[in-house]
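Tip: read the tokens left to right.
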């Protein structure tokens, strides 16, 4: 679902084993391939974020910069 230019949202269903399928449109948009690793972040108040592995370093740097300020 295209929310705003460059912003998307998809509904997924959690299976019995706690797994879900990343929608095809999202996999194509972010070029996710079988065997790729993703970073899953969680915040009790804000929810879950899923990032491609190549964004991991950039995101973690931002987290630590904010903590040190």
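Filled-in amino acids:
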């Amino acid at each position: 679902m295209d929310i705003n230019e460059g912003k998307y949202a998809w509904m997924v269903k959690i299976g019995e084993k706690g797994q879900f399928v990343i929608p095809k449109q999202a996999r194509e948009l972010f070029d996710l391939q079988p065997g790729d690793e993703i970073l899953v972040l969680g915040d009790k108040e804000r929810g879950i974020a899923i990032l491609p592995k190549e964004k991991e370093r950039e995101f973690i740097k931002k987290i630590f910069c904010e903590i040190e300020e």
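The chain has two helices and four strands. The mean pLDDT is 84.
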